[in-house]
Design brief:
Number of helices: 2
Low-confidence stretches: none
Radius of gyration: 12 Å
Distance between the termini: 30 Å
Helix content: 10-25%
Largest sheet: 2 strands, antiparallel
Number of strands: 2
Oligomer: single chain
Shape: flat
C-alpha cells in the first residue's frame, strides 16, 4: 500500500510483510548519520548506536 501511495517519491521501499497492529520503525537515512524518527515494532538499536 505504501509503495502505491509514495513509491514514486521514494528511492527504496522494503516490504517486510504484515507486522501486526503495532506501528513500524522509521529510520531517516537522508543525512550522514541515520536517525530513528519513529520507534515501532522493529529493533532500531543498531542505528541508534551510530548516532
Amino acid at each position: 500500500e505504501i509503495n502505491a501511495v509514495l513509491g514514486h517519491q521514494l528511492d527504496l521501499v522494503i516490504d517486510g510483510g504484515f507486522c501486526g497492529f503495532e506501528g513500524t520503525t522509521v529510520i531517516d537515512l537522508t543525512q550522514e548519520l541515520p536517525m530513528v524518527t519513529r520507534q515501532g515494532a522493529g529493533d532500531a538499536s543498531a542505528f541508534s548506536e551510530l548516532a
